[in-house]
């Protein structure tokens, strides 16, 4: 009897250790179901996420609704409706061997992407004018590290002769789970900036510069966010407090 109890005790310890190790590996996958944003004035906005498996069907907020269409597991069309003025925008995505090569806002703009051997992505944005003519607006490069977009650099192409205008934004991240990253195909959307990254953005640094006749005017802005996480290392609360955007609390529900 004592031997049986001893074996049972050892088995219990083994199972408990196995469970703890499983939690340490942090393999839990969650899908974001609801987001509640509250301003400094106490005004709240709720956004709901609807899925078919791991594929996002729509994101429905108080002011905007976004519907997604998939083809072979990739997001190929996004339709955004502004509920305030009922204006609608449709963006179509094209891929080559699973990599995004073009994003087109029908009748508005087109972005073409080139995936480089050093894992950066070069891009060019064109405005679409009358007669479907393309007018080059700006071009740039996206930089990645550990499945995160860490920097974007761009040069404007529609400036006056002799004027060089540059823009860059860099992102610093935590090591926790971005709740949007588990959405099928979401990380392929290169126009979604830090939202498509594996981790959560803590600091965004925006630098702009304009040079003409050997004179350079530059500025830098910083945007900070702080998070509170659950036991699976997913954020359940975010607080941002910046000069331009003000205080905003975001709550995540899975």
Question: How many strand elements?
Answer: 16
For the termini, the CA-CA separation is 46 Å
Question: What strand order characterises the main sheet?
Answer: 1-2-3-4-5-6-7-8-9-10-11-12-13-14-15-16
Strand content: over 45%
Q: pLDDT under 50 segments (min length 5)? A: 1-26
Quickly give the structural class. Answer: mainly beta
Radius of gyration: 23 Å
Number of individual domains:
1
Largest sheet: 16 strands, antiparallel, barrel
Number of discrete helical segments: 1
Q: What is the overall shape? A: globular
Oligomeric description of these chains: single chain
Helix-strand topology string: HEEEEEEEEEEEEEEEE
Mean pLDDT: 90
Signal peptide: 1-22
Organism: Flavobacterium xylosi
Keywords: Signal
Protein name: DUF4595 domain-containing protein
Task: Give an overview of the whole structure.
This protein is mostly beta strands. It has one domain (37-226). 9% of the residues lie in helices and 56% in strands. It has 1 helix and 16 strands. The chain has one helix at residues 2-25, and strands at residues 34-39, 44-52, 55-60, 64-71, 74-82, 88-96, 99-105, 109-115, 121-128, 134-145, 148-156, 164-173, 201-212, 215-229, 235-242, 246-253. It has a 16-stranded antiparallel β-barrel with strand order 1-2-3-4-5-6-7-8-9-10-11-12-13-14-15-16. Strand 3 (55-60) and strand 4 (64-71) form a beta hairpin. The longest helix has 24 residues, at 2-25. It is globular, with a radius of gyration of 23 Å. Residues 1-26 have low confidence and may be disordered.
